[in-house]
Batch of 2 targets.
Target 1
Amino acid sequence: MSAALQTPAPTRPPTEMTPPSGGHVLPVALYLKVFGALLFLTGVTVFVSYLDLGRTSIVVAMSVAVVKAFLVAAYFMHLKFDEPFHVLIFVASILFVVLFFALTLVEFGSRGDVVPEQDTPAYEQDNPPAAPVPTPTPLGNTPAAPPVGQQQPSAAGQCDWRAFTASLCERRMV
Amino acid sequence: MNRTTSTHGPDQSPSLHAPYDSAQQQRSASKLGMWIFLAQEILFFSGLFMAYIVLRFLYPDTFLQAHAKLSIPMGASNTVILITSSLTMALAVRAAQIGDRKGQVRLLAATLLLACAFLVIKYFEYMAKIEHGFLPGALYTGTGLAGKPHLFFTMYFVMTGLHGLHVLAGIGLIAWLIMRARKGAFHAGYHTPVENAGLYWHLVDLIWIFLFPLLYLVK
């Protein structure tokens, strides 16, 4: 094996020194700036969560999280100054996660769309749910009548496993 | 680790092993392995994130109500603690790069302290949940929440618990690094373990950056 197999490092900004084993030393000021940006963005995330943005609030929160992730990956993890192959590995893993989410959500979101009898689990066909789940009551009030199949802990704090498993079927979790 | 005497040019540190021809090649291979591990870690957590997405999609009101039982100040403090620990870790790697032995030990120790602080706050958060019966799945005995709050708390405990285990593993890793760094094992010519532990630690921070808004700031 020869030096030809070594990946040439990309051009990088002037640094104080380059260690003998490769790599790159970044100035402390750069790390501190990234740190400041991360703290600021954390503040933004918390602040925005108190605003009433409806459905876009999750989009905003995730966008800010992505920006923070980019800063950590590019500067703290040195991806900006590192071999491009490492960037490829990182980005590829994210792409596969996105693929995973997309396909699962497509499948999940379209359940029951095609043939209702075939898409309803057998348990529910035999025992259709008696009543719809009541709308959530305000905090502090326990619901008077629990919905069908909801797990009921007994007075001693034990769990009703049979009802719990049945409720999983009812809710299409199994 | 074995220390083979170098017989080649001046860029070969005493920690160079066969089959690598140079320290740079050895470092590059080592970092490649670490990045592949990090890719696996991302996919590892993605399963839980997928479960979170599905459950939140199914029961948005439950998530909205149940998440109010979490303490945003504690969650935000943990976020700040982890981001600061990422900074001290990055600076520790830099200290190793320029051969500053005292600096790297101090900064690694700071990272370790911050990581422990994170776990301490987590401990108090968990205790508060357990006291009120806000437990995962079938263990749930809390009151005052409508819908299916045991599902939310399942996601909360499993996701933060798995993340907490990663923090614990990171603490062990950093403690090992400190012990080696104090003996001067890391210098400008060889500091790959510090770099790789840094990468792992930054990933732990990255995961928390996504966990925090999803669990604590539901809207």
Note: Helices of chain A lie at 28-49, 56-76, 84-109, 116-119, 122-126, 161-170.
Target 2
Amino acid sequence: MSKEWDARDVNMVDDDVVIDVVERGEDGTQNEFDIPSDASEISDIVLVACSNGATAGKGGVLYRLSGGLVDGEEILPAHGSGASIATGNERLVEAHQLSFPEGEGIRVKPGGKITVKAEMVGEDTGEVAGAIGLAFRVPGGG
Amino acid sequence: MTRTMLVEGELTGEDTTVTLSTEGSVVSADRQVPGGASKIDRILVGLAASFDAHDNAVFYLRLSGRGIKGGEQIIPVAAAGGTAPQSGADPTSNGILVEIKDVDIPVRPGSSITFEGEMAAGDVGDATMVIDLVFA
């Protein structure tokens, strides 16, 4: 088996407001993830987000996946950020990879689409840039 | 079989991909998939941002070219965000090394891979990105 990787990004500006995750860098708006016609499951999810800390406070980020998932909506966290003042908060954070062994991934409907939405939760910490990567397990290999 | 392939370069500008092809003192790195390789097994990415602009952004790794059997692959690897320090105060330094495991991207031995890095969804100034592929 092999994997096909794709991603989307988003910029969040308000807490507790759900926003569509549909951009992909210079490619612009891509809307939903396309599930390959021969994919059986999501094997990996890569999660990352970072606040600019422009507002003192503490908060997190959620990603909601829905659509072409056999077992329904999945919700995942991506980020936590907190600071007592809104200055000097320069930070770089690593993406987190969530991996599933073959046969234990998130089951998908081949040829379908996956909708991803994000929201900043807790307190407003300024603006948050986030991205999510999905790897689909497909037949074939190297 | 040589198992690693490394490129690096500088990212500038929001939502702008940059082709990475240098390897330090080596101006044009060898980007041909080694003979005997069947897939990319792991990816290591080093990244540091200048924060010449105080905003937030995410960073992508893009792999394409004939050396990648399934077409372009895009993986987010990091995110950044920041505000200016108070007057007279020093900002903290930054830098990360992230590993993506069990990548399982099939490759074509002898064919080339195109590496691109991208800062997206915002602009934190410049960033240096180093990408290393580990083949199996």
Note: The mean pLDDT of chain A is 92.
